Amino acid sequence: MSLALLQGPSLRERTTLRLGGTAMAEVVIGCARDCDALPQTLQRLGGTPLVLGYGSNILASDGELPFVVVNPAVMDAPKVVGEDASGVLVRVGAGFRLPRLLGWLCSSGLTGLEGLAGIPGTVGGAVAMNAGSYGCETGSRLVSATVFDVANGVRTLMRDALHFAYRHFSVKETDDVSASLSPVIILDATFRLEVGSRDCIHTVMQTNYAKKKATQPVTAYSAGCVFKNPTQEASAGKILDSLGFKGKRYGGMAFSEMHANFLINTGDGTSEEAKYLLSNAQEKVKKETGYSLELEVRII
Ligand code: EPU
């Protein structure tokens, strides 16, 4: 394998919010060995590296953007790589889609990640933001991850070298280094699951997905929740709803009628309209409640 290179990828087509202009180029990593050529390729292309999986948590700006998309498309299917009294270890490529992983875990009778049903991203993206729902966080089951960064090359890091918090992942030793200078690219992840009943796993996944479908706009163009919850007890969606943001529209962008923490592109929205709505919401929430809502969606 070698690095595949695409010119001028459209971020509108590469993100679930369907917003954004054109990046300079896209570099596709098919396997860990491809990373050997990455530093030189990035240097030659110039621009800022932007690691992008399924693009389900990104609000991309309009116009020509100075980014080189780095796509960790390591598609290795899930595989059992170990088993002991405490569980079964499953390794999977970062580019593998999370819904497919959950389907595989269900048919393999492996329990532990059912709460993630209905999250659309890749495995790498879910680790990179410690995606979570219904009391389950991606990092809670992670045992190790193979990562690449320019300074250290490819290495497999055990969980104690990684830092997970609410919607946050980082490599501990690089916590104080700017991510844009040395992005950490996740290549694969190994999770510890337990053996369970297929029927139970299937039921829990179906129940979680049904709950999600009933309360969140799962088929709309969106990037999931746009703000982090300010505290464990306070839901950003509930606060925004109480302040009248549900359904609030500006141009082609709107806060969802179903869940006020989802920003929706109704089809012809622009990034400027999206940013206007986000800052308008932050200002009003600050003024009325004192909370400073932190973005969960990544604006680039
Ligand atoms: N609520 C409202 N109005 C709204 C939205 C919510 O009144 O517009 C109320 C609900 O009725 C409920 C409470 O607020 O009583 C909490 O709502 P919900 O269960 O939807 O949870 P959330 O805190 O709004 C979090 C995550 C979601 C995750 C759900 C389910 C964040 C920012 N959001 O939402 O994650 O799916 O819990 O576990 O942590 C995401 O990260 O992109 C995301 C969607």
Briefly say what this structure is.
This protein is an alpha+beta fold and 300 residues long.
Tell me what you see in this structure.
This protein has 300 residues and is of the alpha+beta class. The protein has three domains: 4-72, Uridine Diphospho-n-acetylenolpyruvylglucosamine Reductase, domain 2; 79-213, Uridine Diphospho-n-acetylenolpyruvylglucosamine Reductase, domain 3, CATH 3.30.465; 217-299, UDP-N-acetylenolpyruvoylglucosamine reductase, C-terminal domain (Uridine Diphospho-n-acetylenolpyruvylglucosamine Reductase, domain 1, Alpha-Beta Complex). 24% of the residues lie in helices and 30% in strands. The protein contains seven helices and 20 strands. The chain has helices spanning 11-14, 38-45, 98-108, 123-128, 198-215, 236-242, 271-289, and strands spanning 4-7, 25-29, 48-51, 58-59, 67-72, 79-84, 87-93, 110-111, 132-133, 136-137, 142-149, 153-158, 162-165, 168-171, 185-195, 221-225, 249-250, 253-255, 262-265, 298-299. Strands 6, 7, 8, 11, 12 and 15 form a six-stranded antiparallel sheet that branches. Strands 1-2-5-3 form a four-stranded mixed sheet, covered by helices on one side. Strands 16-19-18-17 form a four-stranded antiparallel sheet. α3 packs antiparallel against α5. The two termini are 30 Å apart. Uridine-diphosphate-2(N-acetylglucosaminyl) butyric acid is lined by residues 133-134, 215, 224-225, 228-229, 235-238, 241, 246, 259-261, 296. Uridine-diphosphate-2(N-acetylglucosaminyl) butyric acid (EPU) binds at residues 133-134, 215, 224-225, 228-229, 235-238, 241, 246, 259-261, 296.
